[in-house]
Amino acid sequence: MTASSLAETSAAERTFAEKPAPRLNDADTLAQEIVEKLTYSIGKSVKRARLHDWLEATTLAVRDRIIDHWLVSSHETAETGAKRVCYLSMEFLIGRLLRDAIANLGLTQSVREALARYDVELDLVELLEPDAALGNGGLGRLAACFMESMASTGVPGFGYGIRYVHGFFRQEIVDGRQVELPETWLKHGNPWEFERRESAYEIGFGGKVSMLDEAGKPPRQVWRPAERVLAVAYDTPVVGWRGEHVNTLRLWSAQSLDPILLDAFNAGDHIGALLESNKAEAITRVLYPADSHQAGQELRLRQEYFFSSASLQDIIRRHLRENETLSNLADKVAIQLNDTHPAVSVAELMRLLMDVHGMEWDEAWTITRATFSYTNHTLLPEALETWPIHLFERLLPRQMQIIYAINAVVMREATQGQGFDDTTISAISLIDEGNGRRVRMGQLAFVGSHAVNGVSALHTELMKETVFHDLHKLYPSRIENKTNGVTPRRWLFECNTGLASLIDETIGPGFRDEIGELKKLDGFANDAAFREKFAAVKRANKARLAALVEERLAIQLDPNAIFDIQVKRIHEYKRQLLNILETVALYEQIRSLPHLDWTPRVKIFAGKAAPSYVQAKEIIHLAGDVARVINSDPSVRNLLKVVFIPNYNVSLAEIIMPAADLSEQISTAGLEASGTGNMKFALNGALTIGTLDGANVEMLEHLGAENIFIFGLDADEVARMRREGHNGQSVIDRQPLLRSAIDSISAGVFCQEEPGRYASLMNSIRDRDWWMIAADFRAYWDTQRQLDMLWKKPDDWNKIAVHNTARMAWFSSDRSIREYAKDIWRAGPDA
Ligand code: 26V
Fold it and tell me: Where, per the database record, does this protein carry N6-(pyridoxal phosphate)lysine (predicted)?
């Protein structure tokens, strides 16, 4: 069997490999398998092999074992006719795969020993794997955690997305400013993926729609696209815990149908001959490096339609291979729309069912709604996708017709059924008439789905009150909550082996199979000897991070200090600026009152700004400027250090999360849909300082108020103050610490070479204070000082830290996936 046909499930193949011959998991066997790959797949001898060759050989050896399980999983799903879950996402922020795969297969020790025989260190080999960074932030990382959890909980899942040639940009800081460099994860090839040339689909753009009236057949609309490109599938296996189930992540790559226009080439137009091919391939060349702010460009819409159509054609083809009819599609497939990026799928599925497969409107519409469900990940108005109608119509004329027709159905339900007034009707409409006529993708995803979910309890309630207020009135049972989670395999077992082993020793290894057992750790918070060991693990993790910072930035960190960490995308609503202002205020206080017993702190920041987001880039620049001045001031040495670690990504997060004492989750309340970094930190024993926002609210419920440090305005108060026209200056006038910090930054204390650099950033706080930085400063400062006091009582601090790890099990993405499977998809082992 060739690599390109593995894990496909055609009837001919079903007889193959019911159960692969079991392999031995000892170091001898693995050493032999790895060396065999090294010799025969890579063509290197043990003597000559470089570390990179060992990475490839190890990956290929491990991959063979995954394939054994992959085939079995695929065949089982096909054989039993189990319902599949298709997760459509523009982003999968995967990170590295080797360590995850080895750990889930239970091979870590054997592989380590096998390589050690050749004086090769597994940890060093793992470091050479590039991060698959096919996502921006939370939404993409959630998709990756969900893929792993679907495999671990036995839900037959398919991830569908885009195989970007260039993932999320590499960030460098040059002269204090963020510089974006292209990321090239495929440079050395990608041993995890299988190209499936046989799974390729044509994707059309532009052209005309006409009515076809053939004798003896009902008249139907036919779309004749002006342009066509090919979507080619690349499959990556996603191995679940203990390797029991392996799912598929299928990413689409765009190719031109004609690689070269030979006529043009022969006529001497060598560049023109390649234009079409370049235009086609451009569709999957780069990931849009933004996580808010509507993209607006045609290429983005092309990307969205390209991967939606390819995925739906694939789903339909597979369905028809196993079923006689499409009438039972919704019984066999659930399709989750990860935000509105794949929302055009609603119109595309209708088109495929009606125009290609001859189904009537009513049946197609019923099936479409029963198949799709939609997750919303942000309420920020600037991130809600809409497309100009003229662009949509030009690129996707048939889909536009269908959207008008869907809109007519919804409008009818709203006027006839409910007697809604004109304002409500225009809020519900799929067409925004107010802004130069645009298609609203959120509305399309909502009406085309049977379930719509938010990602935390608070966010879901706010969806009902704000963006989907009127659609919620029309379809009151459609919105439900599914609080996010994170996979404990990557975010505890693999990234914090010290803590995971300590938990093994303390409560036994049962928590690795049933994460709920972590609760057994709770009682050990009162056991001094255990706390000592827990603190020792944290200290080792801090030392590891300190070594990284020393190596990359030549800054020494004191492990006795609180490691106070804020890592996430840089955005005004996430309020890195509030943290920086508190840092400056603390700096000034330490300098004015040096005799006080200050608690030493290290403030750590990391995160990327969207390339076009000016304020976010200024915030990065400011963090660096503040760091430079504070770190070189001998009067605060060892009491305060500030670092901005460049190029935050999944692999860096795996080192940072276990090393945190304090996790900063300080968004303006009502704006962070959930957060998932908050969960990773707390699971690894960090205390949280945070607002009543996103999943922090539920963390408060699970941890208890004494184990999380909540401050500031809540979402209702923020909304009220905004309505009443809050202004920052009035608050600043009453707060000398804040005023002095803002004045120092404005006056150029941290950027003497260009004193006006931050004037406008500071003025935005003095004027509108839209993000409530001035408004929340005092509460934030007070809570930080409370934490300073707590640090002086290590027993008390460590007790809280233990409670955090013990009580975070509910935030496992296995729990999220089981809820989706039961309530939305009606799929999985318990369906
Ligand atoms: C929007 C856009 C607009 C067009 C350009 C590209 C682009 C890319 C992404 C987005 C939406 C980003 C929304 C997002 O990442 N939300 C985060 O989702 C996390 C998982 O649910 C959640 O934990 C975070 O709170 C939320 O900010």
Answer: 680
